[in-house]
Write a structure and sequence with these properties.
single chain; 414 residues; alpha/beta; five-stranded parallel sheet
Length: 414
């Protein structure tokens, strides 16, 4: 595809940016549009996956047919089969009449199934049948019906991991992944795209409400493009519109543009420590090398949970022996601050004076592994798990409620 044709498509669908991965996704969509193969679009939430199915449909032989976009994650599990395949009168409570499903409505056209990873296992089996031979049955009916629909699916979860954990059918996974188009995360795109998108969103918003246009200083642009944008384009758009609404003012002959410095922009950029994504390594470059994939994130989370369970198990063993234990390398070690008289169970896991592990051998002598911060974080995590309720958190941790209240008071006074 030549540059002019690519830009024409971007203009038509209001796509901003010149990143190579973004261009490749658009070119792939146009290339596979004429055939009826099932397509799976992958990418994080907020990257704009919904644009690709529209491009495919408009460049396909089905362009005169219907195009329906369905968010599978927004439909309750109890009604999703009826929504997709229709139902007969009296099929369930509230089914006062016969109803066509999306597959019947989109016959001859294209059906976009977003968040396909959220489908229940029963619905996955029904979807597989439609993809294989175009057959389905309405809820409450025994009559097999036919439909001619091209299915385009999208997901922001790792379907391979979902298959491995038993949440997604393996046969459906292979049926969907014949052709995959990946939409890049905003942090992996060309950094210039971030400022181009910001200008687009602020310009649209200011034009709509007749406000002065917003621009950024060089330092502010650097801050904008260095942020990781875990919410991707959706997050950038919301922040750009908020900045315009608050920092701009109605257009006057004296004011047509407002320039914001880095200090002002900082007030709208979330702190990195509040991000839900793992930090990208320093070696991460334009190509996204060093960033974590979805499977990597799942492995990290599982490893942390496994580590916590192992720490809890070892702690109960050590404390049950008065603090003395033998390490895997055969060296004899003990827990500092313990003796043959074991403290009360409700206090032994939380006293700050006992939250250091001393290694008493020649190779590691004198090394101290501080545990206070880890214990504090464990307590806060457990409190969050139980909705801030102290009693069940204390019961799970094996400590007293008084200990948790003391920790909360210490945190408040820091």
């Amino acid at each position: 595809m030549d540059t002019q044709e690519l830009q024409r498509i971007k203009n038509k669908y209001d796509i901003i940016g010149n990143d190579a991965a973004l261009n490749r996704a658009i070119e792939t969509a146009v290339a596979i549009a004429p055939n009826d193969l099932t397509v799976l679009i992958t990418g994080e939430s907020g990257v704009g996956k919904e644009i690709i199915p529209q491009i495919i449909h408009q460049h396909s032989l089905r362009r005169t047919g219907k195009y329906l976009a369905i968010n599978c994650g927004a439909i309750p599990e109890g009604t999703i089969n009826a929504e997709l395949f229709g139902h007969e009168k009296g099929a369930f409570t509230g089914a006062v009449g016969e109803r066509k499903g999306y597959f019947e409505e989109a016959d001859g056209g294209t059906l976009f199934l977003d968040e396909i990873g959220e489908l229940p296992k029963e619905t996955q089996a029904l979807l597989l049948r439609v993809l294989q031979n175009g057959e389905f049955m309405k809820v409450g009916s025994s009559k097999v019906e036919k439909t001619d629909v091209r299915v385009i699916a999208a997901t922001n979860v790792n379907l391979a991991h979902a298959v491995a954990t038993g949440k997604f059918r393996e046969d459906l996974y292979y049926r969907l992944t014949g052709i995959q188009i990946r939409m890049p995360a905003l942090r992996d795109r060309n950094k210039d795209d971030i400022y181009l998108l910001f200008r687009k969103f602020t310009s649209d918003f200011s034009s709509r409400y007749k406000l002065c246009k917003v621009s950024l200083t060089h330092e502010a642009i650097g801050m904008l493009t260095s942020y990781r944008w875990p919410g991707n384009i959706r997050q950038l758009k919301n922040i750009a519109e908020a900045i315009t609404a608050i920092e701009s003012r109605p257009i006057t002959p004296q004011c047509e543009r407002v320039e914001l410095d880095a200090a002002t922009l900082l007030g709208y950029i979330p702190s990195e420590k509040d991000s839900l994504l793992p930090a990208v390594s320093a070696g991460s470059a334009e190509g996204g090398k060093g960033s974590f994939s979805d499977s990597d994130k799942q492995m990290i989370i599982k490893a942390l949970l496994d580590l916590k369970g192992e720490v809890d198990r070892l702690r109960s063993i050590v404390e049950g022996r008065g603090g003395e234990f033998t390490a895997a390398d055969g060296t004899h070690r003990r827990l500092v601050g313990t003796d043959s008289s074991i403290p009360e169970p409700e206090e032994q896991a939380c006293e700050p004076e006992r939250e250091a592990l001393r290694v008493d051998d020649q190779t590691q002598g004198g090394d101290i592994l501080p545990m206070r911060k880890a214990n504090d974080e464990m307590i806060m995590h457990c409190l969050a798990k139980h909705g801030g309720k102290v009693k069940p958190a204390a019961a799970e941790l094996g400590i007293s409620e008084r200990t948790i209240y003391r920790k909360l008071a210490e945190k408040k006074n820091r």
